[in-house]
Amino acid sequence: MTQHDQTDLIATWLKDAYAMETTIIEVLEKQIAMTADLPGIQAGIQTHLEDTRIHAESVQRCLEALGQDPSAIKAGMAKLGGKVQGLMMAIPEDSLIKNALHDYATEHMEIASYKALIIAAQEANLPDIADACQIILRDEEAMAVWLDQQLPTLVRLSLSKAS
Ligand SMILES: [Fe+2]
Ligand SMILES: [Fe+2]
Q1: Distance from the alpha carbon of residue 163 to the mean position of ligand 2, in angstroms
Q2: What pLDDT band is residue 86 in, cutting at 50, 70 and 90?
Q3: In this predicted structure, what is the pLDDT of residue 71?
Q4: Mean per-residue pLDDT for 133-143?
Q5: What is the pLDDT of residue 95?
Q6: What is the dihedral of CA 118, 120, 124, 130, to 10 degrees?
Q7: Residues surrounding ion ligand 2 at CB below 5 Å
Q8: Could you report the per-residue pLDDT of 23-70, keeping only the tens digit for each?
Q9: Taken in order 119, 82, 42, 57, is the CA torsion positive or negative?
Q10: Three-state SS string across the chain, please?
Q11: Is 34 exposed, middle or buried (0-12, 13-18, 19+ CB in 10 A)?
């Protein structure tokens, strides 16, 4: 594969990451509205929503650095967003635990995506893109740890509501 082909492939993966981030923004906004009675959880989601907006902007800058037209990136989102959404970003369920499991899986999907992008960018000698993805990866890993810590509370809360 030529350097040009590698760069094209990395741009495709970055577009998927951009679609993923923009979809997650919508999901987190809905979850914030749904967690008004759980201020600790709501605050954690709010913080990650702000991180996620920065992730989308950072990925967009990576795409622009690869010569992708910003308007074309946005225009392709409806299609890509739908694809990613269908795959793993379904609209939030109304149950607390289903949302928690969904978020847990989502963060790990993000972790895997950025790990793959970091390796690809390093292989293709695109260090700025590798660095940008590394910064995002740290936020995703921190969110995954936080979600893991919330899981026992959310399970117990769900059980107590059922009893
Ligand atoms: Fe993210
Ligand atoms: Fe995330």
Answers
A1: 32
A2: very low
A3: 74
A4: 98
A5: 85
A6: -10
A7: 110, 140, 143
A8: 999 999 999 999 999 999 999 999 999 999 999 999 999 999 999 986
A9: positive
A10: CCHHHHHHHHHHHHHHHHHHHHHHHHHHHHHHHHCCCCHHHHHHHHHHHHHHHHHHHHHHHHHHHCCCCHHHHHHCHHHHHHHHHHHHCCCCCCCHHHHHHHHHHHHHHHHHHHHHHHHHHHHCCCHHHHHHHHHHHHHHHHHHHHHHHHHHHHHHHHHHHHC
A11: middle
What is the CA(147)–ligand 2 centre distance, in A? 11
Report pLDDT for 81: 52
Q: Give the number of the ligand closest to the Cα of residue 142.
A: 2
Query: Regarding predicted confidence, which is higher, 132 or 161?
Result: 132
Rounded-to-integer distance, Cα 146 and Cα 68, Å: 34
Ligand 2 center–CA 91 separation, angstroms: 16
Cα 139 to ligand 2 centre (Å): 7
In which band, very low, low, confident or very high, does the pLDDT at 17 lie, cut at 50, 70 and 90? Answer: very high
